Structure formats: structure tokens, C-alpha cells
Amino acid sequence: MTTLPKLVVAVLMCLFSVVASAHKMAPSLLVLDEILPGEFSVHWKTPLVQSSPVRIDMTLPAHCQPSSDRMPKPDPVGAVFEWTVNCGSQGMVGYDISMTGLRENQSAAVLKLNLQDGRQYQHVINASNPSYTVPERVKRSDVFWEYLTLGVEHILAGVDHLFFVWALILLLARRKLLIAITAFTLGHSITLALAALDVITVPQTLTELFIAFSIFVLAVEIAADKGDQSLVRRHAFWVCVAFGLLHGLGFAGALKEIGLPQEEVVVALLTFNIGVEVGQILFVLVVLAIAWVLRRVASSTLPASLQPQRLQWIPVYIIGSGAAFWCVERSLGLLI
Q1: How big is the chain by its Cα radius of gyration, in Å?
Q2: In this structure, what DSSP letter does residue 63 have?
Q3: Beta 131-133 vs 96-100: how paired, if at all?
Q4: Per DSSP, which regions of 10-148 are E strands?
Q5: What are all long-range contacts of 74-79, with beta carbons under 8 Å and residues at least 24 apart?
Q6: What are phi and psi of 301, to 5 degrees?
Q7: What confidence tens digit (pLDDT) does each residue in 220-244 have?
Q8: Is residue 72 packed enough to be buried (19+ CB in 10 Å), middle (13-18) or exposed (0-12)?
Q9: Residue ranges per structural domain of the chain
């Protein structure tokens, strides 16, 4: 790749970093389990630190009255409370469960509702749709669009995953880039499915460390500038399959936090994975399109001090520094 696209991608990634950091706060979690007909145990968790004075809170249907006091539970990163409510013969189906404070905190909330008859609901409540009407049955079309959107949002908000894709763009020519992205997709699709279904289990902290290390490896490859002797260039397919397996474990961690609707597990899993791919492809296409446009006008618009050949080291240092920081931060996290 020429040096101008490298500069363009560097600027884009800085912008993506700012956007992603604004949405770093973990989602709140509301779990409702029907323990007796009409009676529910409530588990409510919100982040200890919120980005707005407006607190995130939840509202159950008006006929659901507390039957026990809210009891705080110890948690290192969240404010957690548990209690029970009685909704009588009306239950939860057909009624609204809503959240406040999501827009002010740029956050979301995961709702998990389990009924005694086996029906299970998982839904992400966000600022644009702050309430959820519990349906009689989960609709397949709703699951499709919700988990597709979640997949897109997850990849575009994941700075580390985007750093990895960014490094591939910088390192590989167009044909090999297509091969690498295909291999990366194959790898993370396998582990995403296996980990989300609990076939394999890997500690999330360890997974995040390995993801950071994979980005650092690519940064070293770019900086070494070995040409066709580069390990990634010579074995792009298999290297990206291996790294894809690691990143798939990271995607699965996010999906497990949300949960899978038991009536539509396959649909949810498939569409989340498709959403990840859609977001990834959008990122690649936007970067390449902007790079192509700017490459055509750069020579006549950029001053000599900002010519790409003088700034080609910037993206490599951004990737390498970011990856090194994550490696150190996540290694310390394993020790705490």
C-alpha cells in the first residue's frame, strides 16, 4: 500500500478511537427469573462509575410490586441489587420494561427474562428504544435484526479488532488482503460459535491479552518491512485463521454477556456473526474508498511538510503503541 493510504487510515483510526472510547462503559444488566407463577426474582446491575449525573435505572410494569427489600450484593465493578417482585396473574407478557438514563450515559442495558413455562427472552435496550414490550413469543425477524445490529455495533466499537483489520490493510496487497479477511472470518466464526454455545471456555482476560498480542505481532511485521519475506505475507491465510480463532473468543465474550434466545439460538448466533462481518467490510471499504479519493488529490493539495512519505511511520507507531499498551494493561489484569 502506498504511504498516503497509511496516513489516511491513521487519521481514521484516531477518530474511531475517540468514538469507541465514548462508548466504553459496560452495559447494565437486568435479569428477571419467574420463581413462582407471577413472582420474579430481580437482579439489577449498573456500572459503579457513570458518565452523567443522571443515573441509569429500570422500571417494571406498574402492577409488579416489590415483595422483598432491595439487597445490595458485593461486586468489584458494578452496583448490584437483588429483590423479588409480585406481578400477580398479569405476569410480564404484554407489558413494558423500560430504562432511564441510557442516553445521558451513552450506554445500553441487557434484559434477560426467564418464565416458568420455559420461554426465555434476551433483549438490548438502548437510548433510541428505551423500553421493551414482552411479546407472547420471540419473533424470528426481531431476533434477526437485533443480533445483526449488535454484531455491527460490536465490531465498530471494538478498537482492538479494528486495529487488527487496519494492520492487515497496511501490510497486505489487495488480493492477499481479501484472502486474509476471508481467513480471519473463517477463524473467528468457528470460535465464536463454539464459545457462545459453551463448547469451549477460555478466560476472557486471557483472550483479550492474546488479541492485543496478535495486533502487536502485525505491527512488528509492518515495522520490520521484510517485503515478501514477511511471515504474514508468505502465510497470510493460516496466520489470519489462527488470529481469527483468538478474536472469535473475544466476540463470543460480548455475545455471552447479552445471551442467546433459546428459541432462536441458531438465528441469533448466525446473524451476530454476519453483523460482525458487515461492520468489518464496511470499515475496510470506507478506508479504501477515502484513501483512493485522497490519493488522487494529495499531490496538489498537501504542503511539502505534510507529504505522505514524511509521515509514513505514524500509523505503525499508533498500532504498535496501542497494542503494547493493551498487552501491559491486560497482563496486569491477570495478576489482579
Answers
A1: 23
A2: T
A3: antiparallel
A4: 28-36, 39-47, 57-59, 65-66, 71-73, 78-86, 96-100, 109-114, 120-125, 131-133
A5: 75/45, 77/26, 77/47, 77/48, 78/26, 78/45, 78/46, 78/47, 78/48, 79/45, 79/46, 79/47, 79/48
A6: -115, -30
A7: 888 887 766 777 788 888 889 999 9
A8: exposed
A9: 28-137, 153-335
Residue 302 has phi, psi (to 5 degrees) of: -85, 135
Kindly indicate the confidence band of residue 336, based on its pLDDT and cuts at 50, 70 and 90: low
Q: In the 8-state DSSP scheme, what is residue 48?
A: S
- The least confident of 87-101, 171-185, 208-222 is 171-185
Distance CA 250, CA 134 (A): 30
* 3-class secondary structure per residue, 241-292: HHHHHHHHHHHHHHHHHHCCCHHHHHHHHHHHHHHHHHHHHHHHHHHHHHHH
Q: Are strands 28-36 and 109-114 parallel, antiparallel or unpaired?
A: parallel
- Taking the alpha carbons of 299, 303, 309, 311 in that order, is the dihedral positive or negative? negative
DSSP letter (8 states) at residue 75: -
Q: In whole angstroms, give the CA distance from residue 35 to residue 46.
A: 23
Amino acid at 25: M
Higher-pLDDT residue of 11, 291: 291
Give the model's confidence band at 141: pLDDT under 50 very low, under 70 low, under 90 confident, else very high.
confident
How many CA atoms lie less than 13 Å away from 122 in the CB half-sphere?
A: 19
CB 90 within 8 A of CB 39: no
Q: Are 320 and 14 in contact (CB under 8 A)?
A: no
